[in-house]
């Protein structure tokens, strides 16, 4: 991860998933009427059952694990020839990939052969974010002031992901936690790009002055601007998704009411069907991914 590409890759991953989760949220609200509707077509029903997100997360974690140990040269050992710990930063990254892959695996199992595992997917997602934040908190030992400041701000974004994902696990019907989690994950993704740009691809072509405190102040300001822009972006994604679904979704795909649901009657969150994966079940949990929704 010690390159611009190494920061851009996970940043892109978090950005894409946060946008996808917000689209899912709009889809559930508009096309599925908060879970009161389900698609009639065979293709759409099949898409609902496929654990697409879980598979994607597992593959991403596996690829990241292999890439960390193979690029630019193999480094699978934990100790060097003198018996000292080696490649500690590499193995920290591998731990992060492993915990996210476990989350994805739990999501796959919950949508296939172990439906009861669904109530624990968000807890595992929160755990994966926690491990990521823990490792990044101690990732900058011995590094420059700017490097440390950049990663400390990243830890704040990760902490928000931990809290909001865990909140979803205990309050699955509260859509505000879900929307805020999308913003937090997007903030983490865009800040990864900021870290890579400052450390490895500065616009001026010169490293940032580590002794200039104005640089640290600017980075703190930039973090707040990232948050504002990410909130606006999520609102735009939600608005566009709702507009498209209202204009085309209910006519392009034919929906019918779910059996046993009367008009105006609330439905338990565990019976909702989302586009991302999984047949509905009666568990009190969400149907998404890294979490969600993800997740």
From TrEMBL:
Bilayer topology term: Multi-pass membrane protein
A Pfam family of this chain: DUF716
Family: Belongs to the TMEM45 family.
UniProtKB keywords: Membrane, Transmembrane, Transmembrane helix
Segments traversing the membrane: 6-27, 47-67, 90-109, 121-141, 153-171, 183-202, 222-245
InterPro entries per the UniProt record, alphabetical: DUF716, TMEM45
Protein location: Membrane
Protein name as catalogued: Transmembrane protein 45B
Leader peptide range in chain numbering: none
Species per Swiss-Prot/TrEMBL record: Patiria miniata (Bat star)
This protein's record includes keyword Transmembrane: yes
GO cellular component, one term: membrane
